[in-house]
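Tutorial, part two.
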Amino acid sequence: MIKKNTGIVLSTSTIIIVLLILNLVVWLAEFTKEDGAMKLEKLRAGWADNFAAIMDFYESDTYKKQQADSIPTLLEQMAGNKPTAQAPTDTAPIPTTPTANQSVKDAVAKIVAEAHIEWKKGTRYTLLEYSDLECPFCKRHFQAGTIQALVAQYPDQINYAFRHFPLAIHANAQMAAEALECAVELEDTQAYYDLISGIFSLWSINKDSVIAEAGKLGINIGGFTTCLDSGKYTSKVQAQMNEGQSLFGIRWTPGNVIIDTQTGRFVAIPWAFPLEKFVQELETLIASE
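Running the prediction step on this input gives:
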């Protein structure tokens, strides 16, 4: 008598499905590691090879010269001409040593004068943060409370202003930036910063979720939606990206700049550094007054 084989025979399709599931588990495990946010950014950019190509392009001498040549145009725009609404380009960082360039000093003064300042106005130093509301690094930087801690430590010397820098790889960042301007129009500067906090608390950013956050703040939904749909602040957001890139060399987010409003000197602090880095750079500026 022949004994039948009672073992389980898996079909080819079942094996493939199992392998795909195992691959997905491994992939998800990678994104739970500490550098998962950076991997997500690389994925948005077209994965590692394309991400590296973008960064190499930013560092090329030809590209740096091209963008350095764009500074006079930017300064002319800031002097009163209508800003461009086209996607801005990148530039080489301007040296952070003290500058005697009067046109740059005037441009810095104009930025500070029209920025939405949080905390005490009229301080000698202003921290500008060029940020993207859909950027995980910006969210981490905001929620770490680094800026709040810096201002609390130097309340009479420095204040803060959030500036727009929505990266093209984030589909809803431009919309969210324009939403902040609508909040100011309908309410005030406090609503601007309250909405920043609300948006950064979201798991996923889209138009509906941003409108919902505005509603939680008591902002009139009808007026807010009308403002957002109008596109009236598109060029303003793009102009802030232009200034961040051409004046301060910002190319990724968050891009922080501490400015001496009396002299126009500044120091750029790219990425999300701990409080100690900001204290060090501010103290250096203060010491060189």
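Confidence is low (pLDDT under 50) at residues 30-38, 41-51, 80-100. In part three we will examine how such features are distributed along the chain.
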